[in-house]
Amino acid sequence: MPLELVTTPAELRDALQSARSQGQSVGLVPTMGYLHDGHGELIRRSAAENDLTVVSVFVNPTQFAPTDDLGAYPRDLDRDREVAAQAGAALLFHPDAGAMYPEGHATRVQVSGLSTRVEGASRPGHFDGVATVVLMLLNLVQPQRAYFGEKDWQQLAVVRHMVRDLWVPTEIVGVPTVRAQSGLALSSRNSYLTDEGRLHAAVISQALRAMQAAYQGGEAQADKLRQVGLNVLAQQPVQLDYLLLLDRDLQPLEGSLSPEQAAEARLVFAGRLHGVRFIDNMPLVAPLA
Ligand code: PAF
Predict the structure, then answer these.
(1) Does the keyword Cell membrane apply (predicted)?
(2) Is 115 flagged in the annotation as binding?
């Protein structure tokens, strides 16, 4: 099926009308474009589980702080169309900021607590922008399922919480992070890196994996596990924002972890390397290969 491009909410509603009237299931993959194979994985999963997949490509201004990289964020619509079509999408929704936030748009969605912790503390207001645009996209597309990468662990938690609190009738599907051979999590922002930077950035996944290995080797003290990760990160000039062990509510874990705490613990990293800000995460207990 050729990929159809629509740019306004009205066009999107029209394009989805016949699918809806035929009772077809719809999957949504919200993105900010510059699609890579991590997005490809979300789209393939949606295409396998739904009759029709919508990919949105919208660099959402409300989730960027004035000092963030909104203007520099990479964009390439032709490539996005190709990646989306190849992965099995039927519709690509690419609105401009005026179509999504017309004059007088005044509503923001805030998931209290969850949105201000960890990444939210480093980027105040970021998750309010994310929750707002995701709810707008869910309302516009009304999908049965929406697909989000686990790489943005806290974003996934915020979206799940919002959908639960507001009775949004969409299943939120988290999809495991896709990594380069070096272990670096795929991200549109990796395009900011030089080859050397890309090589050095592999230290992030190495640090998280070292923490997993230390736990598997019998270390259950949260601060000692953290130190294992910090020692690995010290091999490169990383400006650390945070390296934490979090529970399911994204609260930091401390002391000796019980097996139950460990089973749910998530290792989360944020920091800068070669001028680029990275986030990554893994479960403390590595899944069986
Ligand atoms: O993960 C992203 O690319 C964005 O935060 C999202 C979910 C598309 C909202 O703008």
Answers:
(1) no
(2) no
